[in-house]
Fold this protein.
Amino acid sequence: MFNVNRSIFVFEKIFALILLALTVLALPSCSTPDARQEDFSLHVRDDNTASELKKVERDLTVTPEKAALHPDYQVIENIAVPYIPEYRVGPGDVVEIVYHIRYEKTPEDYRIEVQDKISITFAYHPQFNTTVLVRTDGKITVPLVGDIAAESKTPVELARILNREYGRFISDPSITVALEQFNVKIDELKKAITTAPRGQSKIAPVAPDGRISFPIIGNVQAEGMTVTQLEQTVNRQYSAYIRNLQATLILLEIHHAKFYIFGEIERPGAYEMTSSINLLEALGMANGYKKSANIREVVVFRNDGLEKPIALKVDLENVLRRGSPYYADLRIRPADIIFVPKTKLDNFNDLVEKIFTRGIYGILPFQTVFSINYDINGVTIR
């Protein structure tokens, strides 16, 4: 009986100490309800403090003067606007190519092209007169002399060469070269691109392999290029075949890239990126995280456009608790995989088991194969 009473007495003492400790721990939060106020730009309690938001926003507005010193802003027509990377073309996007053929007078002499038809006239020896077609090897065949390179030469230059070559066989050849048919490639291009509703243009989708098929020049790699870069590439390749052509590219349709989010999320799955978003916005698109989520160890896998995949571990709880401004820099990129765990990730093998063995690859038919060589502790954002 003595031992039982003593045990009850000891238990009561321990219970009292626990209550006392909890009371002491609670005192600072009760006595200083605004202890963490300094982490926030503004603490709204009533109408007066709410009106202060306008002043805070006014003080923080990025003016053209501030933008000149801010790497994330640019000044356009004296207006400060956020710098947004130029859109890069991807599979499924649809591009319109508008062709402009220049017919204006140029100071340069016309140069003979493949498939041009030329006439060769002898002033004093008409029996040698002939009309020839420039072959795909850039040469023509004429009597007595044989093959002569004609492509890229002006009619005057070709006449000079023919006079020299024929001078070995006849006296005073006096040859004149005239163009019978020329700009043949332009005519071919017109036939390929002219449609009743759109005129001289072509609608071209980006294929799954990232290429676009163009008349005459064939397939051109488009994925990963900006529209400006692709336009420059197309015009450079056309210039090798047609000298007086200018192509303008217009992005008609954008098939948005996707990111993927899994784990303790209300609506896991794939989401389209219709604009640039950060990590918090991505979670919001999935209706947020569950109460069971461990947001101190949110993991983002990234492989798009990188030499090798990387993994970022983000302490999102710290971001939310402190109201840290750097959350806006946690940008999501196409093909990112976001995983919100339920429990603490003890090691990388645990993460691989959760995501790659029993998780994401069991849900989505990915074509991209990730190399499992991440250093999960290598990049941590806090």
